[in-house]
Design brief:
Length: 153
């Protein structure tokens, strides 16, 4: 599975997946669960690189002291919005407003998609950002719905 980055705006990013064949309904459901789970963790602030206390300790975390002050003092890192996953032929795409979540969120998603591609359905490539020439994002109903639904919140 190739990973490619295009023009990237964390508040307005499309994530594109290319399958080897047209995905079945169950394969679409898997993709939607991956994106939804990832977004939910981001919405709850799970991708906050300023508070990676366990990771920073290393391998031996037995009896580690978790510092509540560090956790409390770290800046919020929250994802804001997610559009609906859309499909066209062998492509899937989904729009996100990653908000203030840190770049570790993208590493987590890429790692999950790599394993998904090995275990369930082969993905040819994942593209973060930008637009596909033959499938313009301006015609997306899901992104405009997300923006209009949340503009008054």
């Amino acid at each position: 599975m190739q990973v490619q980055f295009r023009e990237f705006d964390p508040f307005n990013v499309w994530i594109w997946l290319e399958f080897t064949t047209v995905p079945s309904e169950i394969e679409k459901q898997y993709v939607e669960e991956i994106f939804s789970s990832w977004f939910f963790l981001g919405k709850l602030g799970g991708f906050n690189a300023e508070n990676l206390q366990v990771q920073d300790v290393g391998l031996d975390i037995s009896y580690m002291t978790y510092d509540e002050d560090i956790a409390e003092d770290s800046l919020l890192a929250l994802m804001h919005n997610m559009g609906e996953v859309e499909y066209e032929g062998t492509w899937a795409r989904c729009w996100f407003d990653l908000g203030t979540s840190d770049a570790i969120a993208l590493d987590v998603l890429i790692n999950a998609l790599r394993q998904f591609s090995k275990d369930y359905v082969t993905l040819e490539q994942v593209i973060i950002g930008g637009e596909n020439e033959d499938w313009k994002t301006g015609d997306s109903r899901s992104r405009s719905d997300v923006l209009s639904d949340n503009q008054y919140n």
